[in-house]
Predict the 3D structure of the following.
Amino acid sequence: MAVLAAAGCAVVAWTSSDAGRSAAGTGAGVRAGLTPRAERSPGPSAPDPGATATSSPPAAPRASASSAPPDIPDEGPGTFVTAPGTSAKTGTGSVLRYRVEVEDGIPVSPADAAHEVERILSDPRGWTADGHSAFQRVSGGTADFAVKIATAGTVDDICGRYGLDTGGEVNCTVSHTVMVNLKRWELATPVYADDVTAYRALIVNHEVGHFLGHGHVTCPGRGRPAPAMMQQIKGMHGCVPNVWPYDAEGRPITGPSVP
């Protein structure tokens, strides 16, 4: 509960060299493609100009609040295992190829994580609803971005190389890399503590949204669904929980833009 309380009130200082897009969007070269890597690879070592930071479907299992919390290490080696296999293309338009990677030594199956990210990115309420975003998971060759699940220490280290302070608590998007904090992946936040699966969708949708160029927005009105691009970890501001960028009818769920 102490971890959850800290996450719920964390206030992170976001910075970006891309003027006017604090914690939003990406900089030059973000879609240039990733070079092939070995099965185990370290995080990026050289900064790119752009950086962003932040913070399910009914058929998916829901986490129980009474479940024993997993053993979550704070530090890891900073090396990663790439989930094997390739997914089918989902969405229309130019395909964005991505990898799912899991830090060595953490209690997350790369195959299970890849399946979950695939499910989120292929959901009709996700970014494919914009009519021009398409995704395909790969395990080799070049990729446009990577989703990496890692310990808080590794997330802080990689995000910090780009000037972002994730404070051991939150996620970030830097250049072509989505960094997912293991604590958030396993524990969510107090608002989503009874539905960790849904919060995982929020993480992926929010951070991939930054990669696609979307900035932060705030609550559009009391009782309205919270936009996926809202920093919900900092408070709901009268909105009700929602983890998807579009509704079931394909209408965007958004609100007034914020820095």
Observations:
- The chain is about 20% helix and 15% strand.
- The longest helix spans residues 196-211.
- Residues 30-57+73-213 form a domain with the Collagenase (Catalytic Domain) fold (CATH 3.40.390).
- Confidence is low (pLDDT under 50) at residues 1-50, 54-68.
